[in-house]
Amino acid sequence: MKEEATESSRTKITVALFVATFLAAIEGTIVGTAMPSITGELQGVQQYSWIISIYLLATVITTPIYGKLSDLYGRKRMFIIGALIFLAGSMLSGIAQSMTGLIWFRALQGLGAGALTTIPYTIIGDLYPFEKRAKVQGWMSSIWGIAGISGPLLGGLLVDYVSWRAIFYMNLPFGIAALILLSRFMKEKLEKKKRHIDFPGIIVFSVGMFFFLYAMSLVRGEGGEAQGGWVTTVLFILSAALLSWFLWIEKRSPEPIIPLQLFRSRLISMANLISFILCVINVAVIFYLPLWFQGVYGKTATFSGILMIPLSIAWPLGSIVAGNMIAKTGLRAICIISACFLLVSNAGFALVDGSSSIWLLVFYTFLSGISFGLTLTALTVAVTSAVGRELRGAAVASNNFIRTLGQTIGITVFGLMLHTGTANDIDPAMLESSLHHIFVWVAWLSVAVLLLSFVTPRQAQEEPLQAGNHAS
């Protein structure tokens, strides 16, 4: 694909990918602002959380599936299919007349979003040589930070001045424009050969992950209190059995959804492990710092959100810097520098108390954002460069999947550690103690990231792992 794409067509394809990624990313944050209006019109407040969680659940499950199918049937074809499903879900969500209907349509949106969150990174890996690829993926990673900042604001404006339905309708013109650009300018040649879809693997993986993610949501309950009892236990047992069966299927499948040979690559294994830990840490920073600002410092929710803006600004900056640095400095250097920032910030979070300056926490928040942007972008570039084209979709998708798994586990574990409800109904001293306990653990996780960074491969570009090869 690199040889066939002119600079002009590459630019148009990249713009289309940026737009699609932004639409999928912002759907995870824009809906939260609109939820009071949605529940006010459609009722069903008891189903409130499912409007957001069903979208994320469907996205998580389909991410590795789209990654592998894009290796088999082409990036362009699978991207278009995913985008059409996403846009259909957006349109139907906009015309939903009940909460139940909206939940189903949000699930449809998520089924399409799995393609939009992973295939763009794979296409960038195909389109650009290593040095340019790193820069473009740095910009693409920054889109998530931009979506995090603009989502709640844009959602509020649309709800106040148009309608909550507009947050879904807005996807249509931009999504269609992205589809037209990609369809017109992306050329892709696939080798003609018989292809096998791993249907047993897809089914067993999807059901197993659904049971696992649903059980995790039951464990979280309200305010981190364990819920579900024996039902939760049964779901965990079933998910463990099904995912074990999935691994057995993958070992024997000619075209596994998640090729296990990927994990024989030292670079990919280290990238996945560090990504997992970083995303566990990320949950603590994003979800529990606002609680600290509100419950310990007594700030309003709005002001707490403003105090988190430095993280949302620093993350895109870190992503762009990583994209420009990695070809010169190598992967290990970026990971070590970034891990030092991460350790300073999280050790700082663990050491502050209610008498500390709030601006000190804001500074640590900025350092965290720089660290997340630097490392996660560098690891994305590393994963796309460590494999050949036949495995790139599966490699990128598995890394994205592991990141989301880290966030899911982090939300649950830290929620159980907190043992509290909301910032309004608890003693600030008790909240401060619980949050301190969480950030002590996060600081130790940061130490683990630093130690792992020292044994990460020096360069991001290894000899590409091809389908059927085994890397040591």
From TrEMBL:
Identification of the protein by name: MFS transporter
Membrane topology value: Multi-pass membrane protein
Gene Ontology cellular-component terms listed: plasma membrane
CDD domains, A to Z: MFS_Azr1_MDR_like
Residue spans crossing the bilayer: 12-35, 47-66, 78-97, 103-124, 136-154, 166-185, 197-216, 228-249, 270-289, 301-321, 333-352, 358-388, 400-418, 438-456
Pfam families tied to this protein: MFS_1 (PF07690)
Keywords of the record: Cell membrane, Membrane, Transmembrane, Transmembrane helix, Transport
Species lineage: Bacteria, Bacillati, Bacillota, Bacilli, Bacillales
GO MF annotations, alphabetized: transmembrane transporter activity
Compartments it resides in: Cell membrane
Keyword Cell division in record: no
Record-annotated Major facilitator superfamily (MFS) profile domain positions: 13-461
UniProt cross-references to InterPro entries, sorted A to Z: MFS, MFS_dom, MFS_trans_sf
UniProt source species: Paenibacillus pinisoli
Record keyword Membrane present: yes
